Fold:
Amino acid sequence: MTDYNSDEQHQIPVIPALEPVEGIDQLLTVSFIFPGEFVHRTNCFLIGDKWAKKLIIDPSPSDADEYQRLVNSLYFFNYSYSDIFITHHHPDHINFAQRLAKDFSIPIMISEDSFQRLLKKFGQDSFENITIKVVHEGEIVTHWNGQEVKVYEIPGHDEGQLALAPESMTWFLVGDLIQGEGLEAGSRASTVVIGTEEGDMSKYFRTLERIIRLNPKYLLPSHGLALESVAPLEKTLKHRKQREQEVLKLFKEGKTPDQMTKELYKLVNKALWPLALENIKAHLKKLEQEGMLN
Ligand SMILES: [Zn+2]
Structure:
């Protein structure tokens, strides 16, 4: 193991980190994101009571070098670690999770839906010798500031997505429910993709409404900086409702989803159009389920 007390300490590459809320570390890991995406980091949060073991949330380094920097950071903090917690199955949240679980001999906590999707994609062998803890709504997975931290099931962006929050609602760790602002060019867009395969616009609306009602003080998203209050969620919900009405109007005019994308996103970078098309399709699916397209 590396000796962090040596004179060479300053030369050990680590990942830049923030403390968005007292007692929570946010590692800005360069992550494994699909080409064409406009953000390049996924927040790896470390959460736990002061002298207790910490939960490692969504460690997702892009490659072997970033993995090593992440491991260096985990040693550098000098904590003990209880488990890896995966918010959802997307590649920018799970890359190297199995390897980290093996290297640190700790279990992976994940939802049933996300686990099944990963099994389908990578096979049973990829989880050999790893303890999997399937977690559900309401389960206590760690503590923070002396409080229980519980799991919330937040489908919409991804069917199996999980969130975390303490009883006080000081913070709500929301995964890809919404994106934070800042840090990189292009990351100001707060809209996330609701794919029609694993996402669901109706559930996304309900999840937004639920967290707005819970009214946490800070939102901790997987990409970008922490957000204050639920105002960004209210803004997102309002924006999506407006978009839905626009989609409905264009549908009644006989426009196809491709034509809708060109019309509604004409001022947006074309590289984002395939993602915008996904959201339009998700809106159409929701409208169809509600009998609005008859
Ligand atoms: Zn995602």
